[in-house]
Amino acid sequence: MAVTDTSLKRVLVTGGAGYIGSHVIYALQKTRRYKVICLDNYHNSQPKALTRLEQIATDALPEGATAADKASAIIDVHKCDLTQPEQIRAVFKKYGKGGIWGVIHVAAYKAVGESTEIPVTYYHNNVSATIFLLQVMDDFDCTRFVYSSSATVYGTPPKVPIPESTRLQADSPYGKSKVMAETIIDDLTHGTPLLYALITIVDEKEYSPTHEMASYLLAILQMAVGRVKDPVLKVFGNDYPTPDGTCVRDYLHVLDLAEGHLLALDALAPESKLFDNCPTEARYKAYNLGRGQGSSVLQIVEAMRKATGFDYKTEIVGRRRGDVPDLTADPTLAEKELGFKAKQDLETACRDLWNWQTKKKKKKKEQWTP
Asked: Can you give the residue ranges of the NAD(P)-binding domain (predicted)?
């Protein structure tokens, strides 16, 4: 690296090549204050996403950029399976004790429906990976941890919009794996006062085009570009206690989500006063990230119809196991303490997602054109 060890804070992002993780890295690079280390096993992502991120960050550098600015655009990439602790340890060993300033843990299996079919796989991957990561962090004096969780931890919440004080009672193995991880982190901060941990909670499964078989948006998006042959979009249930009977979710633009993770990381700086009001010595807080405004599945279909121009046909089928009626977040606490504010509305999110998909399709076509 072309800068001294203290020029940039090293931040490790797990799952950094994925849709959410890559946007978190993008937000970190924009600050030019962090040196990003990416860990990914490419289970549901491609390493070329990281090359693209480096190019975007490099192109955005100002004239006369410093050596530190240039270094912040380059990602230290490590192919790593988080369920193999020796692989995690090898990465931390490269940077030495205290060499990694903080960790943003995004990597996980995230499909609610799939988790009901292979629950043990989800528990093994999502829970054990978090445990091994925290153990290695402790061994190498890394004390700042941001965990990307899910609104599924709340199950069917008794109050909507959902405040952070809501009990954790997930309905799906995926959600339960997140509850387990949050519980472990909470316990660890009580037993290790030097560990500072923030939990960012969001209904992430609905806006990411990378979560196979888990997202209505994925099916909607791929149907519009001809990758889904079924001419009818299946809607899982219309008898929920919601305005139109279909599930309601707080659809958050991925750039707003990434900004929320950056704010959480910044809040772990030594000068932060964020934990001054904690009732115990444990430095642990959770924040719901969202717009505070839910949208139903049918509303999403209509928004995507406007964004794509595609005439979607829908069919109501039975409920999907693990789904809950409404997961609209109450972002008040995140707005007050982190300064978080969702800037993008649903229409913008759908438009940007469509633009991303069409550009991706165009690039693939150009790549294979003789």
From this structure: 12-352
